[in-house]
């Protein structure tokens, strides 16, 4: 399943559905359905490998795989789907390039602000992660 997850990132990259890193895929762990795998934050979709995946529990706590920041807002939204619907095995989300561009050019955290307005607690990556 992890091979397919890595392959899905490459398909999304090749089809130019997104610009680089603006999104995520969250899949249910086939061995332990209470755990999930997600891509690390700020890793270009065209470069993601199986070893890049982050293994998390339903609370979003890293329990294995690569220890890296994840898209907390995306995790919160999709983990709710996974918790409510045991038949859901995967969710994919992408952020439209124009929206991400507006956020970058205005220097206003639109994506984090939108998540916070929805009641999702803000989590910030350490500066060393953000510089990557």
TrEMBL record:
Residues 4-104 form the Class II aldolase/adducin N-terminal domain. InterPro entries: Aldolase-II_Adducin_sf, Aldolase_II/adducin_N, Aldolase_II/adducin_N_sf. GO terms for molecular function: actin filament binding. GO terms for cellular component: cytoskeleton. This is Class II Aldolase and Adducin domain-containing protein. It comes from Colletotrichum orchidophilum.
């Amino acid at each position: 399943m992890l091979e397919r997850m890595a392959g899905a990132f490459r398909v999304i990259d090749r089809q130019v559905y997104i610009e680089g890193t603006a999104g995520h895929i969250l899949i249910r762990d086939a061995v332990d359905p209470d755990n999930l795998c997600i891509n690390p934050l700020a890793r270009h979709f065209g470069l993601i490998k199986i070893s890049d995946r982050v293994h998390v529990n339903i609370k979003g706590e890293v329990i294995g795989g690569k220890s890296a920041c994840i898209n907390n807002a995306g995790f919160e939204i999709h983990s709710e789907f996974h918790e409510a619907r045991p038949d859901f095995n995967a969710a994919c989300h992408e952020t439209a390039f124009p929206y991400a561009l507006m956020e970058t050019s205005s220097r206003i955290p639109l994506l984090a602000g939108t998540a916070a307005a929805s009641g999702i607690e803000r989590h910030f990556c350490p500066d060393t992660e953000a510089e990557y």
